[in-house]
Amino acid sequence: MLLNGQSLPKKNRPVVGANKKMAVKVVFKQHCAKCHGTDGRGRTVEGEIAGAQDLTDQDWQHRVEEQRIINSITHGRGQMPAFEKKLSKEQIKSLSAFVLTFKD
Description:
Layout: E1 2-3, E2 6-7, H1 18-31, H2 33-36, H3 45-50, H4 58-63, H5 66-75, H6 89-100
Antiparallel strand pairs: 1-2
Helix pairs in contact: 1-6, 5-6
């Protein structure tokens, strides 16, 4: 939804606290950046081969729900592997909130 040419944030979007942001950035770099890139755009060799989602895409950011991101991280999606045995539920939830910050 647009108001005066500006996107309105989705309701109930999670917020990553400053103290958790550094920790989740490390997890993202270790497990996600290989395909999604540190900037979330998916413009890495592995990302292009796998068809990694551009996490900065505004249309995708407005459509996606946090639970879908959690499910994708937990169970995998397409060529993306599952992380349920590699990451804790708290790490997965923090990652999903972090992914949603790429719209900012």
